[in-house]
Amino acid sequence: MNIFLILQMAADTDPERIGLVCDGRRWSYGALLNAAKGAAELFVESGCTHVALLDESSEAAPIALFGAALAGIPYVPLNYRLADADLGALLDRISPAYVIGDVDRTQRLSKGHTCKTRSDFVAAAESASAGATGEEREGEGIAAQIFTSGTTAAPKAALLRHANLMGYILGTVEFCSAAEDDAQLVCVPPYHIAGISALLSSIYAMRRMVLLPAFEPDTWLRLASEERVTNAFLVPTMLARIILRMDEGVETDLSSLQAVAYGGGRMPPELIERALALFPQTGFTNAYGLTETSSTIALLGPEDHRAAHNSNDPAVRARLGSVGKPVPTVELEIRDDEGRPLPPGDRGEIYVRGEQVSGEYRERSALDAEGWFPTRDAGWLDDEGYLFLAGRADDVIVRGGENISPGEIEDVLATHPAIADSAAIGAPSVEWGETVAIAVVIRPGHKTPGDDELRTLIKDRLRSSRVPEHIAVVEELPYNEMGKLLRREIRKLFQE
Description:
This protein is α/β, with parallel strands linked by helices. Helices cover 32% and strands 26% of the residues. The longest helix has 18 residues, at 29-46.
């Protein structure tokens, strides 16, 4: 089953319903379908092997995504924020491609591509749609190739087949379930799996998408009010900036906002507590997923959020720090280093299995013989089946043979009134192999705590092996655009 069917079904059901709003222009589902058909003709005529988007979010993204699907060509959204050397290397890996967006940069960095600006591509697709046959060239091959963010290593080419993406949509979204007035504000970058899943799920639900090409809190608040947005997805850093502007007095009407999903990075407990208090009418959902799993595999839903927020039971309140329970179509296990399943409460690596789980890269498949995918995320399940994350498995600090989770140290540091943000990493040690090092960000107006004070705080809450040998105070921690902490950059602080 090809993902093009998602747009086809929406257009067949109500071709005049508005499906997309971007930069003031409104697109009906019928208009999007016709443009996608025209785009497919352009892609086939070009002889390309990949369709690449090197641009911010716009109508070009869904037109290219569904056009590529119809043409049977992998869609490859590229990170336009990459340095030239890194972007050039990725462009070389997908040549010859039909590249939409930054023509000058593409031609300067890599050869052999067909290049179109956003506006030229959209105009050409609309023009070509008049003679488009709309015939599928390939059914269930590779729908998308997404280069992973490379937070710990060089990007890998993750492959998502039509069957994976359709498995996710059919298992989590009800067709045409949105009211005609429902609107989803999409502000995540198009090269992230969250951007693709937002397009697919919104169109399948027939919910109007309001695209914000580049996130900025004041613009987000204005669009949410003007378009009477009912649904939104945010990463924690975006939510923090929105709340800050509201606390600073920016006036806006968010009375229509029914549901906010968040994910992509660690949500500070005090931030979600503040959001729940600020938006009492809004249902919050924590969505955990990976590129290789076609997006969400676990959810902490609105009822769980409110129950945890209002509870006096420490175990229930702790669930605000979880990512909820696996979605019904996904199997999930916590395993030890030998691949053996662990009981509730024990930390290990998260393994998942299901139709939406790809686990496939251009170079190889990471699935085991029984179809399980090792996520490289560490975590544990509580007695009720709620999943808690403990960072990347690769981030575990191994001190003298003892495994130490950075998250447990960071949680303790978050209790200090002067610490706005923190990160713990393993630094090289002759004696221990690795030892704990921390980087902290100080809240404005607070005095920087002494090293001994921070060491005592951690020792009193945890144990002596968690006490940091190295401490650095920094202005801010390095995050990517989806809110993921770049620990490789922090390690550089302790290598000099």
